[in-house]
Design brief:
By secondary structure, the chain is of the alpha+beta class. Helix content is about 20%, strand content about 40%. It folds into two domains: about 1-35; about 45-65 and about 80-220. The protein has helices at about 1-35, 145-150, 175-180, 185-190, and strands at about 45-50, 60, 80-110, 115-140, 150-160, 165-170, 195-200, 200-205, 220. Strands 1, 2, 3, 4, 5, 6, 7, 8 and 9 form a nine-stranded mixed beta sheet that branches.
Length: about 220
Amino acid sequence: MQRRRSGLWVCALLAGAGAAFLAVERAGAQTRLAGPAVGAPAKANVLRIRRMPKPGRVAMVRTPEFQTSLGRSSRSRKPREWALFEVEYETAPEWLDALDFSYSVMTRAKAADGKDAYSLFQLRVTYIDIQKGEHTSCVVLAPNTVARFGEPVAVAVEVYQDGNLLAVETEAADAHLQKAKEWWKNKEIVDNPIVKRREGLLERSKTPFALINMDDYEAVK
């Protein structure tokens, strides 16, 4: 009799566990059918960032050289360097009308008193008619901007579609910015007296790099 009761108790326990598991599965299925919550960012099903640029010396590239029929030689005796930031990304839908890339770049230089001085550059770039597949987005700091305000120590990008955030990534070489969450939005950082907001971040098509590997980039609105 005792064995029979024990057996019934085990069966009841297993039945209860099975019912609970089934309830969880049904809830999960309903969630999958319902899709993501309203307001939740759609990510991999629309766009995925494949590679972020690294700040620092690795971002520096020399001015590209082109052969022309002009007789005059360049007056520049020394090769100049640009800070170039390329983001490789992949889109899943067959076509997207537009994507907004919001860039933030922080540079660091030495002030007259020998202390660190930071500059924040920001730019929003809109691409149109994006076909499914792999793409590249790019922004640039000109040589004189880098010479004056220092080399980049951090870069961040946010990608939006119709105002909805699809993806966000950042790379930082500066120890303070590495620890800060969303440093480009952190008021303790961007509103700090040692940080100055500046103009000068350029979309690639406005630089000498515009004619290089043109098929890797989408049209800018």
